[in-house]
TrEMBL record:
Provenance organism: Floridaenema flaviceps BLCC-F50
SUPFAM superfamilies linked to this entry: MoaD/ThiS
One Pfam assignment: ThiS
InterPro entries named in the record: Beta-grasp_dom_sf (IPR012675), Mopterin_synth/thiamin_S_b (IPR016155), Sulfur_Carrier/Prot_Modifier (IPR052045), ThiS/MoaD-like (IPR003749)
CDD domains xrefs: Ubl_CysO_like (cd17074)
Full protein name: MoaD/ThiS family protein
Length: 91
């Protein structure tokens, strides 16, 4: 199954400057592991030392925030698009 991952500019140093990566995974958790195999070191930027997605990152599956779905257990299907979006703060 092929899932398209949209990678933000700050993480593209792990993807050979590619903004889009194709991966195979059945869940967000599998996707992160698959990304780390293809792009070594990216998992430590996405997840903390406990394996949880870092607080300053938002992941979306087809424009749906995974925090309102099943988190890292969110299932993926062929053709899904996963966006990694750094949180923005300000005032």
């Amino acid at each position: 199954m092929s899932v398209k991952v949209l990678v933000p500019t700050p993480l593209q140093k792990f993807t050979n400057e590619q903004a889009t990566i194709e991966c195979s995974a059945d869940s967000i958790e599998e996707l992160i592991d698959s990304l780390d195999e293809t792009c070594p070191g990216i998992k430590s930027r996405l997840c903390d030392e406990h394996g949880q997605i870092r607080r300053f990152l938002n992941l979306y599956v087809n424009s749906e925030d995974i925090r309102f779905l099943d988190g890292k257990a969110t299932p993926l299907k062929d053709g899904d698009e996963v966006s990694i979006v750094p949180a923005v703060a300000g005032g």
